[in-house]
């Protein structure tokens, strides 16, 4: 490597870590639509949200005006255990693809949870502890969020109850055991431990579960016990706020070397990783300072942005949560049991949804065999075994790099590598054995989910 070349890994010093989260809503001229109370169809107030979420998290959820929010020192201290995370120049991948494009990825897998989820888990556990709560409840799909929250609760001495989507609970016993090692109680969802779980099982006894089911159970469990609150690992405004540390670090690292991204790509399930990665770059676009191309990548089996409707819908299958205006397949949509559990959600973050609706972002859906082809090539040349969720972004980053090769363009591509795939070996086994299927829902399949969307005036 020549002396003046960009290093393979760009690390910020600990002192250069973000001291504030960036709130992209402050720079959005048209704000995301508010959460609605399902009983009154009026915007949810702080008082109405307080029985479900921690007080300070409610404030962050409703804050559309403050662009920067201080990160408490105690949270910064915990962040230092695994942050700053590296920005990596994918030299080997560029060489393999023979592309003139320059490819970078922000790697969030260098902690035991194996993903970016710890960024919000630590913040949410901190605020729960500060409020004097006993514990928190949550859902988890692939298990990254549940693992991260169990770690954060262990740090702060909180109880942690995790409802894990049944298909992931069965496919990923080791992910479950990591959570239990950190002290969490893990229940496969839907379960017989909640009223909503019993109802879902009565109607769909053979269901493999979904994030929507697990959310319903976790919310019921939280609101029915004194000293507990519900916390969520994606979708909500507060989570995207905490995850902005990803984009802030990526931008600081690129600025150090005068690198400007042309295309920024992230996988999209509920929107936490994508929203966190793009936030500061999107802020520049919203303020008219610079233009970027943003691409959200989702599974073809759960295509909320590319085939969903932009309407008010429940965030959960049991219809116990507030209504959010988002791109949705309907809260009753049960995605196929694909191998990217963290992307198997029927809706999308209201922030991401509004940005996409305004035409500030593109969206693509990709089939899982193509995703695993990209994951395997990436593992062989870059040395990191990627999580299936992250591999969606890798697939499209590679496609964009190959497009640059065809056109002879030297574009700079940045994507988010949200985590590692060491607990996803059943998926890799199915791919390697040639028995992985590509399931794409038909229009008729999607209509079943759309039919359950509540009939709410969309000018709310």
Quick summary:
This protein is α/β, with parallel strands linked by helices and 460 residues long.
Structure overview:
There is one protein chain. The protein is an alpha/beta fold and 460 residues long. The chain is built from 18 helices and 15 strands. Strands 1-4-5-15-10-11-14 form a seven-stranded mixed sheet, with helices on both faces. A four-stranded parallel sheet has the order 8-7-6-9, sandwiched between helices. β6, α6 and β7 form a beta-alpha-beta unit. It is globular. The N and C termini lie far apart (57 Å). The relative contact order is 0.15. The mean pLDDT is 94.
Helix content: 40-55%
Structural class: alpha/beta
Which band does the percent of strand residues land in?
15-25%
Low-confidence stretches: none
Give the strand line-up of the largest sheet.
1-4-5-15-10-11-14
Biggest β-sheet strands, sense, barrel = 7 strands, mixed
Based on the model shown, name its key terms.
460 residues; seven-stranded mixed beta sheet; 18 helices; globular; 41% helix; four-stranded parallel beta sheet; alpha/beta
What is the element layout, followed by pairings?
Blueprint lengths: L8 E2 L9 E3 L23 H4 L5 H8 L5 E3 L2 H7 L7 E3 L1 H7 L4 E6 L10 H13 L4 E6 L3 H13 L2 E7 H6 L1 H9 L3 E5 L5 H9 L7 H13 L4 E3 L6 H20 L6 E5 L4 H15 L6 E7 L4 H4 L1 E6 L8 E6 L21 H8 L4 E5 L1 H15 L5 H20 L4 E6 L7 H8 L10 H8 L10
Parallel strand pairs: 5-15, 6-7, 6-9, 7-8, 10-11, 10-15, 11-14
Antiparallel strand pairs: 1-4, 2-3, 4-5, 12-13
């Amino acid at each position: 490597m020549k002396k003046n070349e960009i290093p393979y890994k760009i690390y910020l010093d600990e002192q250069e870590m973000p001291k504030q989260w960036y709130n992209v809503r402050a720079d959005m001229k048209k704000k995301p639509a508010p959460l609605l109370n399902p009983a009154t169809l009026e915007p949810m107030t702080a008082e109405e949200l307080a029985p479900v979420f921690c007080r300070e998290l409610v404030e962050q959820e409703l804050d559309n005006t403050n662009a920067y929010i201080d990160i408490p020192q105690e949270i910064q201290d915990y962040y230092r255990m695994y942050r700053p995370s590296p920005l990596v120049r994918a030299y080997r991948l560029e060489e393999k693809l023979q592309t003139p494009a320059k490819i970078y990825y922000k790697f969030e897998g260098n902690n035991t949870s194996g993903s970016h989820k710890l960024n919000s888990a630590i913040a949410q556990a901190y605020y729960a502890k500060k409020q004097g709560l006993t514990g928190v409840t949550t859902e988890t799909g692939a298990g990254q969020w549940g693992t991260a929250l169990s770690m954060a609760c262990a740090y702060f001495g909180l109880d942690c109850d995790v409802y894990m989507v049944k298909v992931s609970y069965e496919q990923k016993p080791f992910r479950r055991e990591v959570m239990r090692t950190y002290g969490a109680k893990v229940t496969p969802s839907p379960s017989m431990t909640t009223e909503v779980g019993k109802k879902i099982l009565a109607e769909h006894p053979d269901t493999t579960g979904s994030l929507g089911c697990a959310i319903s159970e976790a919310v019921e469990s939280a609101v029915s016990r004194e000293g507990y609150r519900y916390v969520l690992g994606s979708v909500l405004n507060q989570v995207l706020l905490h995850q902005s540390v990803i984009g802030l670090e990526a931008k600081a690292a690129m600025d150090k070397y005068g690198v400007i991204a042309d295309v920024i790509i992230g996988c999209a399930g509920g929107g936490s990783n994508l929203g966190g990665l793009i936030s500061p770059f999107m802020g520049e676009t919203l303020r008219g300072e610079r233009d970027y191309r943003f691409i959200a990548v989702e599974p073809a089996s759960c295509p909320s942005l590319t085939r969903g409707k932009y309407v008010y819908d429940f965030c959960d299958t049991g219809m116990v949560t507030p209504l959010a205006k988002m791109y949705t397949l309907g809260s009753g949509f049960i995605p196929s049991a694909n191998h990217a559990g963290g992307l198997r959600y029927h809706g999308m973050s209201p922030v991401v949804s509004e940005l996409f609706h305004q035409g500030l972002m593109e969206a693509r859906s990709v089939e899982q065999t193509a995703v695993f082809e990209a994951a395997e090539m990436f593992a062989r040349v870059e040395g990191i075994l990627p999580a299936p969720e992250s591999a969606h972004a890798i697939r499209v980053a590679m496609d964009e790099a190959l497009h640059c090769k065809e056109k002879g363009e030297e574009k700079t591509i940045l994507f988010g590598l949200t985590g590692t795939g060491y607990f996803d070996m059943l998926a890799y086994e199915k791919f390697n054995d040639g028995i992985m299927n590509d399931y794409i829902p038909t229009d008729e399949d999607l209509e079943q989910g759309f039919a359950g969307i509540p009939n709410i005036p969309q000018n709310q």
